[in-house]
Structure formats: C-alpha cells, structure tokens
Amino acid sequence: MSIEFEEQQNLILPGDLLECEKNNKIIHILGQGIYLTYDNMLYHNNKLLATNAGIEQYKTIGSNNVCNIEYNSKRYIPQQGDYVIATVTNSYSTHFVCSIANFSNTVHLPYANFPQATKKNRPKYENGDLVYCRVKLLRKNLPAELECMDSETGNKDGFGILEAEAGRHSAVLNCSLAYCRELLFNDKEFLLLTKLVKNNLGFEVAIGVNGKIWICTKSLTETLCVYKILEACEKVNRSEHDGIIEKFVKEFIK
Amino acid sequence: MAKELELNNTEKKFILSLLAQNQRLDGRKSLIETRNLDIKINPDAYGDVYVSLLTPEGSVSTRVHCKITADIVKPKDKRPFEGSFYVNCEINGLTGLQFENYSKPNSMSSEGYYTRFLESMILRSNALDLEQLCIIAGEKVWDIRLDLHVLEYDGGFLECASIACLTSLLHFKRPYVEVQNEKIHKVYTDLDERDGVNLGVLHIPIAVKFNIFQQLPTEELIKQSNNTNPGKELVAIDCTIKEEMLSNGEVLVALNKNREIVQLDKPGGVPLQSYKLLELANMALPMVENITSKILKAIEIDESKRNEYAYLLSAENDRYDG
Amino acid sequence: MVSIKYSVLKNLDGSCEYTTANSKVITGVSGPLEPKQRHRLPLQSAIEVFIKPSHGVGPSTREVLMQDKLATALQSIIVTEKYPRELIQVNAQILSNPFDSFGSLQNDPFNEIVSSMIDLNSCFNSIFLSLIDANIALKSCYFSNLFTINDKNQVINITNVESLESLQSLSHKSIHLLVFEIEENKISNILLMDSKGTFHDDDIIKVIDAAQANTELEFKNIRSLIKEKVKDDYIWKV
C-alpha cells in the first residue's frame, strides 16, 4: 500500500479519466472519489471520472477489481460498517441523537441497537458522552443509523460508552481521517502505537474513523503526553516520530 | 441560530483537570502564560496589520487582520470639531462554523459585545485624538474606519483585536490635506508625493481577558459565602475557545502602561471577591507593558525598513557632529 | 507573482490564501454540513457563498453580485447530487484590493468595475483550491483568468500588474473574466465569461486565445501545488 509519488499518473485531479479507463480494464467495484457520468442512460460506455484530488489505487478482492481514490480530509461522511466515536447530543423516547462530526448532519442511535435491549432496559447515557459504535445503515432520506453491538451475534464486542474508570484520565483527540485509518487498519506497518507502548506508556485507545482518537491512561500527565505525541506525529515525517516520542516522554514523564 | 461548537464530556473533564494542575491543553505550562504574539505589518500599505497568537509549538491559533480606511465626511452637527472613528467587526462563517453569516452584530452576541468594548476603550479614553481629524470646522473632517477581520478564532480574541487596532492606528498615515480659504485645495493621496500624517494616538490601551474557573458547584459556593474562602477559583489568561466555553465567568480589563485602568467589565458569571479585581489588574500590568513594547518595536522595525535609503536623501550630515 | 497557501484555516475543512501581484483573498470551504431547514434541497446540496469586502459592512450589492456568479458557476462544478439535503458553505474574505486606498476609485468610472473583477478572479481561483482542500467532490477542475484590452488593443493579464498607478494608467477599453473548465489537463469548456466595456467579436477571440494559453501555463503550477498538498496530507506515511 505504499504510495509512489514519482509517477505523475498516480496523482489524479477532479475531471481526470481513470487509468483503468484508458487501459480498458474492467472494474467491478467503484470506491470513493469516483464518478460515473450519465451521458448514456444504459450506463454503456459512460466515462469514469475522478471527483477528488488524491491517489489512484487498484486492488483485487476475490475476483473483483476494486478501484478507489485515496484522499485525506477533515470531515467524515458516514459509510456503512465504519467504526466511529459519536457524541450523544440529545435523547428521545426511542433513540439517541448523536453527532459524528461537528456541524454535520446528526445520526441516530436507537435503543434497540444495544445488546440485550428491551423496552425497559435502556442505556443511560448523558448528553456529551462519547460512544464507540458502528454505522449500521445508511438511508437515502433519513439520518444514518448507528449500532452498539454486533448485530449478527448480539454481542457487545467492545462497543459502548467510552468512559475512564475512577482514577484514570481520558482525553479525545481530533485529527485527520486518513491518519486515523492508518492507525486503525495498518498497525503492522504503521508502528506508532506500538512505539508508544515500548516507551513505557501504557494506555487504552479507541480509534474512530471519523477522526477521533480516545485515549485513557492512569495519570493526567501521561494522558497529556500521549495526546501531544499523537497530535504532533500527524504533521511530520515518519522518520521523526521516534524523536518526538522521546522529546515528549522526557518533557512529561521524567 | 447557528449550531454551537460541541464539547464532549471527556474533553471537558480533561481540560478542567489540566487547568486544576496548572497545565494547558496547547502546551502552556501555566494559567497566566500567554501565547506568543506575532505582529506582521504589510510593507506596501499603512495601517494594514496581521496579528496572530501562536501556540508554543508555533502553529497559529488566533489570527486577526486589521485595516484602516479614511474618508472625508461632514462632521456631526453636535461636534463640528471632531472627526469620527468606527470599529467594524463581523465574525462570519470564515472564522468558524459556529458563527453565522448574515447576522448583524448586536450587543447580545459576544463578538458584538467585544467590538463595542474595543471601540469605547479607544474612543472614551481619548486614546485617539478626534480633534486632530478636523480639516474645516463644521464642514470637513476625517472619518477613520477600522475593519477587523477575524481569520482564525481560538480564544484570545480581545487581546488580539486590541493589539491589532492599536498597532494599526499607530501605523496608519492619512493623506495630507492642503486647505486654502476655508476650502480643500488638494488632498495628497499619493503618499510618495507628500508624506502622510500620523493619527494622534495619545496612549496605548490594551485589553486583557481573565477567565474564571470555579472549582466547586455554584450551590456550594453560595452556602459558603459567609465564611469567606478565597483562592478557590482558578484564573486563567488568554484562554482557548474550549477553555472559554468551560469558564464560569470573565473579567475584562483594559490598561495602558501608565498603570491606568481604561475600562473594566465583569459581565456576570460567578461572584468574585472585590479585592480580586485589583489583583487581576496588577497581574495584567506586566503583560500590557510587554505587549506595548512589542507593538512599538514592530512599528519601529517597519519604519526602518521603509526608510532604508532615507539617509541618502537626508540633508543631515556629520559635519556638526564634531 | 501569484502565491498560494492551502490549509491556512484549521477551523474549516478546506481553505486557501491566494495572493496575486495586486490583490489578496482568503477563502474557506466547509461541507457537507447540516443546513437550515429553508436551505435544504431534496435532491442536491445547497451551496452558500458569502463574500466579505476588504473594508466596510458587507456583503453589499457589489459582493452579492459576485456571490451569485460564483454560486452558479460552482453549481455546475460540484457534484451536488452526491450531497442531498446538505450544505456546502463557501466563505471568502477579501484582504486587500488595489483600489482600497483613499480616493483611488474617483478618477475613472472603470475603476469600480476593475476592482470587483479583480476580487472575483482571485475568489474563483482561491475557492477552487479550497474545494480541493476540503475534498468536496468536483466534476472537473477550473481556472479563472482576468484580461483587459487597452486603447492600443493590447491584451494584458491583470493579475501580473503590480502597482495601483500602473493599473489606473492602463486605460481599459474592456475587461474580460474567463473561467475555463479543465478535464484531463486540457481545457474543455468555458464555464463563465464576464466582459465589461466596448469590444468587437475579434477582441473576444483574441482574449480567449490569450486566456487559454495562460490557463495551460498556470494550471501546471496548480497541479504541482495539489501534488504537494496530497504529499503533505500523507506526510506520516513512508
């Protein structure tokens, strides 16, 4: 998944034809950032255009060719199956209203989407609480729906409220979406969190792909230290990460 | 009504417990530490100033652009010898999404309140000499208009804006006007042809905002009001927007470096021991002195850059130096 | 020359500071946001453009006209059907205009037109980079040019004219704003053309030719700038 910047064709701008279109390669699944023109009603010979500036990526999953454009942004748009950290903003008789990005459309978290939900057994969350959940359903004309359990098994599966236990301190960090995705899905190559643990920083972490990282450690200075490291590492090259970790650990812990 | 910025409980708790330990989220190590000040003066114009507050890491957190325009108008009938001065500041969607476009600033909104605070700080304390703006009594006066554009907003607006206003006022040059027989003969709009005239800034008031964080819930505080228990509240200077949202009260003090209080305001919030006000004003004084010298330094540097070749044209020579 | 800074406002999704030889604007784009009820469109996104002048209370009629031109042009660039019932907010703050200083508008009635055209041109280009920065889905790229024809029938690119005096001494006969749509690195359409003054049809052809050449040249810079930006976005990658 490394990104090559050397070749010009890797960078794609809105309105550019996709590489696969030029090579007549068949694509089965279109990912984000791709637009299919509708010049032809039967979707025959219609052009595939890019809509965002980013890097073209091709993958083959099973027998399907997948194409998407990888780009980084600040604002999250809900996608089915994503793990997010939502903030409860309001509660009604059947659902919580949650926000997954400041000033974006709100989403719903129905009480029925909790494990062992009954009419009487309703989760007691307050406004402003952070909840780790998954986007269950996107509907065309209604707000997106979240769930706090694995809907196939009905297990809790680590979803639920993000709360520091007594004596522990938590914080939440806002950062760019691609950085969160990298931390969450590419932990084999992107070793930032592992490096932190190696530096004797023990912490709990929850990463939502909506650009929120929740961390919890046993002391306030440690939480601040982890917060600062994660914040600073977003803006620098990977080779400098070790230096940053060392600097902040020295500053806060010793 | 635009949506408010959301602050979740984790953030709230984290920021408040950091404050209780004399730490700040942006890396400052004390409640009374201010952010670094950066004043940039546009070298191609007069009175065109960018002021920003930088976090210890060096990223911009609050940025204000201030620009002065002057116009010749007829004075008010009641004050024929005085020019006019107006501060225009609208915070809109560019500053942050919590601010609404197309909303007229009024005294209810915080930005409207701060703008009026600034304007009265400059006008009522006579920091700007309005009589100097008179060209022909009762006929023509200068109208000085100060436009404040808030480009980035992360707290510290009042400090940033007052610094920008005063730097801009000190730096601005209005065109020289030649008057003959009670008539305007010529306005030297080209400042290269004839140097402009500085505005009469008599002293430099700087506003400082203190945010008060109370440790105990209000009900308990009222119960305790009989046995005075000072030092229970935390006072922080130059708060970020998130800290401001969590604070329980604020005190605004405008001072100049002559140790004079120009304006003082405590718009509601938690009750405060009265002696605390004096304490706060004293606390603000070194800050104001520091800021004033920074402003003067920035103007001096700009001045020397502009007059780089002035010595070549100067009639002065070292003959008299002995 | 033109200097461009992207991602300058951290509070907004995308932003850009665009400085030409004679003007400076800062723009921000956010979206998709939750719109107010009256802005909500059932099948496409609402686009709100807001321009604040460099001085005075705004937006006045001068800015509202610019807002309308921008909104209609953006309507056909943004993939609005991707964000139904949502809002894309575009904000611009004009920081400096060559005609800001005292008395500069008085000499020539054409000055007022030139001044607003300069702002519009800068806004167009700056907003494009803000849209890219905010990652709003776009159908294509665009680039805006501003040319003037003086009384000696010379075609002059205004963004390169530096001082106010030389701007005023140009004795404009007509002024043309041309926004080109760019697909596949090639100019495909004229998105907007706004001309003021007296001119002949061959003048237009001349201006279009000059603008096309300029667009191809300038867009190379913009492309490399966007490349830089994408690189910066993934700075923590290998």
TrEMBL record, chain A:
The keyword Protein biosynthesis does not apply. Residues 172-219 form the K Homology domain. It holds the Pfam family RRP40_S1. GO terms for biological process: CUT catabolic process; exonucleolytic trimming to generate mature 3'-end of 5.8S rRNA from tricistronic rRNA transcript (SSU-rRNA, 5.8S rRNA, LSU-rRNA); nuclear polyadenylation-dependent rRNA catabolic process; poly(A)-dependent snoRNA 3'-end processing; TRAMP-dependent tRNA surveillance pathway; U4 snRNA 3'-end processing. One of its GO terms (molecular function) is RNA binding. One of its GO terms (cellular component) is cytoplasmic exosome (RNase complex). Keywords: Cytoplasm, Exosome, RNA-binding. PANTHER family: EXOSOME COMPLEX COMPONENT RRP40, PNAS-3 RELATED. This is Related to Exosome complex component RRP40. It comes from Hanseniaspora guilliermondii.
From TrEMBL, chain B:
Residues 33-175 form the Exoribonuclease phosphorolytic domain. Coiled coil: none annotated. Keywords: Cytoplasm, RNA-binding. One of its GO terms (biological process) is U5 snRNA 3'-end processing. One of its GO terms (cellular component) is cytoplasmic exosome (RNase complex). GO terms for molecular function: mRNA 3'-UTR AU-rich region binding. The keyword S-adenosyl-L-methionine does not apply. It is found in: Cytoplasm; Nucleus. Belongs to the RNase PH family. This is Related to Exosome complex component RRP45. It comes from Hanseniaspora guilliermondii.
Automatic annotation (TrEMBL), chain C:
One of its GO terms (molecular function) is RNA binding. Keywords: Exosome, Nucleus, rRNA processing. GO terms for biological process: exonucleolytic trimming to generate mature 3'-end of 5.8S rRNA from tricistronic rRNA transcript (SSU-rRNA, 5.8S rRNA, LSU-rRNA); nuclear mRNA surveillance; nuclear polyadenylation-dependent mRNA catabolic process; nuclear polyadenylation-dependent rRNA catabolic process; poly(A)-dependent snoRNA 3'-end processing; rRNA catabolic process; TRAMP-dependent tRNA surveillance pathway; U4 snRNA 3'-end processing. Coiled coil: none annotated. It comes from the Eukaryota. Its main location: nucleus. Pfam families: RNase_PH. InterPro entries: ExoRNase_PH_dom1, PNPase/RNase_PH_dom_sf, Ribosomal_Su5_D2-typ_SF, RNase_PH. One of its GO terms (cellular component) is nucleolus. Residues 2-136 form the Exoribonuclease phosphorolytic domain. It is found in: Nucleus. Belongs to the RNase PH family. PANTHER family: EXOSOME COMPLEX COMPONENT, EXOSOME COMPLEX COMPONENT RRP46. This is Related to Exosome complex component RRP46. It comes from Hanseniaspora guilliermondii.
